[in-house]
Amino acid sequence: MKLLSEIVSKKVLNLYSGRIEGTIKDVSFNKDYKKLSSLKIFDEDEEEYTIAVEKIYNIGQDSVVIRNSNALVPTINQIYVNQNNIINYNVYSINGDHLGKIIDAELNENLTVKEYITNEIRFSPKQIVNIGENIIVNNSENKVKLSNFKPKTPIQNKVEHNQIVKILGPQIENQNDNVFKISASPSPKKIVGNTELLIGRKALKTIYGENGEMIIKEENIVTQKVLDLASQFNKIGELTTFSRQI
User: Fold this and answer.
1) Which of 7, 48, 155, 178 is the most exposed place for a label (fewest CB within 10 A)?
2) What's the pLDDT tens digit per position in 142-181?
3) In the predicted model, what is the mean pLDDT of residues 48-70?
4) CA-closest candidate to residue 137, choices 148, 126, 149
């Protein structure tokens, strides 16, 4: 087994050319955070590359070995780069207890995650209930599903209301006439005229795409790449609202 911290900062050795291609500076996990997905490296010219874990030949004591340069994909040429990395995220239990920040991860030989490590506890990916700006874990013996906490839609509320009317009688039917009414003229969405003006602003929160793809992390600066991702996932409005000039 390996610690994630033992992989970061290793050199990347090209087996075919015999050269050192760069140094690992960051990692990404797959969508459900159960396995290491890719490594990010900087070469001597400060160019950034991504290496998919499938392209790793071996992880040695002093370097990560790849077969040849085909494993190196320039980050700038990728339409979308997986940015799933929850190191330094705060961890809370479902009961609201703060369980520290993630500082490391223990990996199995196939680079799946055995446990995440905070400065207080260890937990497996199976214990994760939700990942947003913080991580919620279930460290109890009771089973918990995130769907149990999903807010009800107006239609679901109306069905329950009608069921109550059937039980208690029609005298309560008109007590909340406006509960389910939807405004005929809802507030318009914020429109951004020149999106390039967002470049250089600081994010006030972490913004994700529809499927959990991280577009920008809180406190990071909006770049053209961030802007392109926000446009791709229809998050320009949210990026505008939750960013500020610095």
Assistant:
1) 178
2) 888 787 777 876 665 666 666 665 655 555 455 544 444 4
3) 94
4) 126
Residue 17 · residue 67 · CB < 8 Å: no
Residues constituting the chain: 246
**Which residue(s) pair with 11 in the sheet?**
23, 63
Question: Mean pLDDT in the chain?
Answer: 83
pLDDT value at position 180? 41
Q: Which tokens belong to 226?
A: 């961030």
To the question of pTM greater than 0.70 for the whole model, the response is no
Sign of torsion over alpha carbons 165, 168, 171, 177? negative
Helix (H/G/I), strand (E/B), else coil: 226:
helix
How high is the pLDDT of residue 124?
Answer: 95
Burial of 192 (0-12, 13-18, 19+ CB in 10 A): middle
Helices within 25-171 (DSSP H only)? 154-168
231, containing H or E segment: helix 224-232
> 47-56 contacts: CB < 8 A, separation 24 or more?
47/74, 48/74, 48/75, 48/76, 49/21, 49/22, 49/73, 49/74, 49/75, 50/74, 50/75, 50/78, 50/81, 51/12, 53/111, 56/111
The alpha carbons of the chain give a radius of gyration, in whole angstroms, of 23
